[in-house]
Design goal:
It is a single chain. The chain is mostly helical. 84% of the residues lie in helices and 0% in strands. Helix 4 runs antiparallel to helix 5. It is elongated and about 70 Å long.
């Protein structure tokens, strides 16, 4: 088999193993088959993937911290805050799609996206109807429903629990 083709196949099998598209046993078997018993050069790929994962996690955390800082500790106009928060939601959404197979970074991106959406919801309710708490409660209740639906669809129990608890807290404040 052509050496270049063999390298491409080995890289693909390593990426399948890393993203868990196939069970590790199958990937190890395929690697042993294509490497003809030699040790595949997968350690450099793993270390580079860990570095990318750490960098991505730090970027996601820093982006969310920046958005919180922008919304609560600066005096820029609310429209600019809402625009920046919307852009961050899009960036988080792209990160969710990019890191779909990776557990921690995927969940960090997803949490950053929904928390940024919560910030945007609060800013939007404050912009549309200042000092009208009922409209804020409606927007927050819709947000909690979205969290519950997302938790059920993605099979993430903590999203469903957070949405349910948020809805209960909103109902408590509505009734008191």
């Amino acid at each position: 088999m052509d050496e270049m083709r063999k390298k491409i196949i080995i890289q693909e099998i390593n990426s399948w193993k890393e993203s868990r598209m196939l069970p590790e046993q199958y990937c190890n078997y395929l690697l042993a088959l294509y490497c003809q018993g030699e040790q595949p050069p997968s350690k450099s790929i793993k270390t580079e993937s860990k570095k990318n994962g750490i960098f991505s996690g730090l970027f996601i955390g820093a982006l969310f911290a920046f958005i919180v800082f922008l919304n609560y500790f600066t005096e820029i106009p609310i429209r600019m805050q809402m625009l920046m928060t919307t852009i961050s939601i899009l960036v988080f959404w792209l990160a969710v799609r990019r890191f779909n197979g990776r557990k921690i970074i995927f969940q960090m991106s997803l949490m950053g996206m929904v928390l940024s959406l919560l910030l945007l919801t609060i800013s939007f309710a404050e912009f549309m109807a200042p000092s009208k708490v009922g409209i804020l409660y409606i927007f927050l209740f819709i947000n909690c429903g979205l969290w519950i639906l997302m938790g059920k669809k993605l099979k993430l129990l903590h999203f469903s629990i957070a949405g349910g608890l948020g809805a209960l807290v909103i109902l408590y404040f509505l009734l008191t």
